[in-house]
């Protein structure tokens, strides 16, 4: 697995990371959750991303792979859902980090994000102050922002974060020539979420109420022509976009994850194909904002 510098944080991450929201599903058997988390590490994926809002995800990470903590970088998201604390306050952030440390049975979390925090809250500053305090105390290594569009612009303009997470794929490219450039100029790490656009090719007709819905419409309009599987095109496009340090993929199917790893061994897409994908996005763009 290719390793990359995660901005100027001082640590490396695997080019493909694991989105652990999928193992937070309460319908997933405990044995299966244990198996997939350990197999993720066995495959060489060393970056695992979760969040307070991902069901049983943090609990299962603590239960099943905390004994392998030195094998992976851990990322989570905070800002809400702490009993007795108002969402998006200093106290909520501090308590959220402490709760995550306990739940995941670790002394430090490598990356902690504000999870889609609105610009108005960022401008107040107290939530970022809370992250700074946790970093000073050694509870967090890198403070981060996860979000899109104007909120992401606000986060970057603060010059107070170590990394960002945002949607980036062949159907969601606006960040590539805007916020991503600024982030790398600041030396920030970059985590690409939704790297395969939630696999809109799964649906023959427009889905409704699915994360892939907006991407299904964009994909249909772009009507790309290419000589490989759409999964491979999507994955290699995102993973090898300049500035992306890791692209998080979520699955409870080990064979799918292994297939993803094999696909990126082919390296970047040919430059002419990348330019074609960029051009089609620009031609079809109908105010296509980043998907939350």
What would the keywords be for this entry?
292 residues, alpha/beta, TIM Barrel, eight-stranded parallel β-barrel, two-stranded antiparallel sheet, 11 helices, 10 strands
Q: How does this structure look, described?
A:
The protein is α/β, with parallel strands linked by helices. It has one domain (3-197, 230-284): NADP-dependent oxidoreductase domain (TIM Barrel). The protein contains 11 helices and 10 strands. The longest helix has 14 residues, at 90-103.
Helix content: 25-40%
CATH superfamily label: NADP-dependent oxidoreductase domain
Main beta sheet strand tally, sense and closure: 8 strands, parallel, barrel
Radius of gyration: 18 Å
List the helices and strands and how they pair.
Layout: E1 3-5, E2 12-14, E3 16-19, H1 30-42, E4 47-49, H2 57-65, E5 73-78, H3 90-103, E6 109-115, H4 119-124, H5 126-136, E7 140-146, H6 149-157, E8 163-167, H7 179-185, E9 189-193, H8 213-222, H9 230-239, E10 246-249, H10 254-264, H11 271-284
Parallel strand pairs: 3-4, 3-10, 4-5, 5-6, 6-7, 7-8, 8-9, 9-10
Antiparallel strand pairs: 1-2
């Amino acid at each position: 697995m290719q390793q990359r510098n995660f901005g100027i944080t001082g640590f490396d991450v695997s080019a493909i990371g694991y989105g652990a929201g999928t193992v937070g599903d309460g319908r997933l058997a405990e044995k299966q959750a244990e198996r997939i988390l350990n197999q993720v590490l066995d495959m060489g994926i060393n970056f695992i991303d979760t969040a307070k809002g991902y069901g049983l995800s943090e609990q299962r990470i603590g239960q099943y792979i905390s004994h392998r903590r030195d094998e992976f970088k851990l990322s989570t998201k905070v800002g809400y859902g702490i009993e007795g604390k108002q969402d998006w306050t200093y106290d909520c952030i501090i308590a959220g980090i402490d709760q995550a440390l306990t739940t995941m049975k670790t002394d430090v979390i490598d990356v902690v994000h504000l999870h889609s925090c609105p610009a108005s809250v960022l401008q107040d500053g107290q939530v970022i102050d809370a992250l700074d305090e946790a970093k000073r105390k050694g509870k967090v290594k890198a403070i981060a922002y996860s979000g899109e569009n104007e909120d992401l612009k606000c986060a970057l303009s603060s010059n107070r974060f170590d990394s960002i997470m945002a949607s980036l794929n062949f159907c969601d490219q606006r960040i590539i020539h805007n916020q991503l450039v600024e982030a790398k100029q600041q030396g920030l790490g970059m985590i690409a979420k939704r790297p395969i656009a939630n696999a809109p090719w799964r649906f023959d007709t427009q889905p409704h109420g699915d994360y892939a819905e907006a991407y299904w419409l964009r994909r249909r309009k772009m009507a790309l022509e290419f000589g490989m599987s759409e999964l491979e095109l999507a994955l290699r496009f995102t993973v090898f976009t300049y500035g992306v340090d890791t692209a998080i993929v979520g699955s409870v199917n080990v064979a799918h994850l292994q297939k993803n790893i094999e696909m990126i061994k082919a390296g970047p897409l040919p430059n002419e194909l990348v330019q074609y994908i960029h051009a089609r996005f620009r031609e079809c763009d109908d105010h296509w904002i980043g998907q939350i």
